[in-house]
Amino acid sequence: MPKLLPRLSLPGFSARTLAIGYVAVSLIVLAMFAGPLWFSWSTNVEQVRTELLQSDTHRLHQLYLRNGPEALAAAINAQTGTSYQGVGKLMLLIGPDGKKLAGNLDEWPVNVHGNSQPCAKRIMIYGQYQNVELTNGVLPGGYRLLIASSLNRFENLEAIFIYGLLGCAATVLMVAVLGALLIRRVMLSKVDGISQTTTAIIAGKLSQRLPAPSQGDDLEMLTHTVNGMLDQIEHLVHSVQDVSNSIAHDLRTPLTELRTRLEELSVTRPPEAETYAEIDAAINDVDRVMAIFNALLRLAEIDSGTRRGGFVPVDLARLTAEVAEFYLPVAELNEISLTFEPRGMLHTEGDPLLLAQALGNLVENALKYAPAQGRIAITAQRCNEQLIQLTVADNGPGVPEHERARVVERFYRSDSSRGTPGVGLGLALVSSVARLHCGTLELQDNQPGLRAVLYLGVRPTAPMLN
Question: Minimal CA–CA distance to 362: which of 441, 439, 284, 270?
């Protein structure tokens, strides 16, 4: 049995997976935007707070030096009051005797000692620990000054930022889900059209095709590809039907003749010599049937592409010369001129047996239809870097232009060739060999006669050994 192709497996498609993808990408983008923003904001706030503390310390220190402790105490009380209100700045001025002179702190924090630059501390404020950034120092005369700024004063702003971020995330989630549902609906509408077409094809309507999308549609390439595949499937199905009909028609004649001969032998019981003659004719009929089956098996093997695994470097000039030399005695026997002319280096990779058989079929056709004193010319040349051309031209009756496309079909025989031996598979095999080697077979008018041109694709080869 032929090996079945694996079924195409596609990943699951649903609004949920699409929404998750949208949400993930959107949240990543949001995080990439909010992360640097938060870092810049917090860094800037800390820098501004430190600069304000340093500025206030320097200003109050200069005020003390100019106007004395009384003016400094009055300025502190005017700026902060005498009690802490929960936000804003913290200031405290202590006299040489350790008593509070001004500020909104009742006592000097126990964990603050000596002079210090701005730093973060956790101090007790009215029975509660709070995080602050502070500076403190000893003024001339033994006075001590402490200035602090609560690190919690921006909590409300931080909460607003977080709530805004959560709101953006919720909005992104909702938009992503709605977008996924909308895209899913659009995609399913297109898939529904594909499903209807494939259902009709499954029901036997092989001529059905996917509707052509509008220009620029993302599914345009897929639609053209699928329609091309359907065209090929329809062609193959019709080809199989034609081949089946042709096989039945072409096998019926030799099998009928074989049965008639055997039945006549069974009934008439002729003399021994006549019996052996009929047996020889029956063997010829069996050979004809076997030749048909062998040709079909060879075509199936070529069409499957399995012969590509046996490609080897081939010198087409040498191969063509050997084919011409093989058929030269037959041509001389029929008084036909057979010439061969190679042109240039013709190295490529391919199956030498199939190439020789394909070229031999073309030469046999030419010999079959060339008239007495006729001419057959074989040429081999390189068209370009990617193509090699093998040509077999004769001056026989040729093939009418309207039949050239059909004579390469399997079992097709034109009216002019009905009386000649053959089963109509020779040119079909040549065409299959050409396709196997990434080429084509073209039949052209030789004026008079037929010019069969076999184009073969050039594949890189390793250097050939003589």
Answer: 441
Mean pLDDT of the chain, nearest integer? 77
Please give the C-alpha separations between residue 31 and each of 9, 16, 41, 172, 453, in angstroms, as whole numbers: 35, 22, 15, 12, 66
Whether 104 and 80 have beta carbons less than 8 Å apart is answered as yes
Burial of 273 (0-12, 13-18, 19+ CB in 10 A): exposed
| Nearest-angstrom CA–CA distance, 388 and 458 | 7
| % of the chain beyond a pLDDT of 90 | 0
CA distance linking residue 372 with residue 425, whole number of Å: 25
pTM above the 0.85 mark? no
Tens digits of residue pLDDT in 399-425 = 877 777 777 776 666 655 544 555 567
Q: Which residues contact 393 (CB under 8 A, 6 or more apart)?
A: 366, 376, 377, 379, 446, 449, 450, 451, 452
Place of tokens 């010369």: 321
In degrees to the nearest 10, what's the CA dihedral of 266, 270, 273, 279?
-20
Tokens of 35: 């992360």
Strand (E) or helix (H) holding 429: helix 426-436
Q: What DSSP state is assigned to residue 127? A: T
Structure token pair of residue 373: 């004193």
Rounded CA-CA distance 346/388 in Å is 7
Q: Residue 319, SS3?
A: helix
Helix axes of 352-369 and 426-436: crossing angle, nearest 10 degrees: 150
CA angle 358, 360, 365 (to 5 degrees): 100
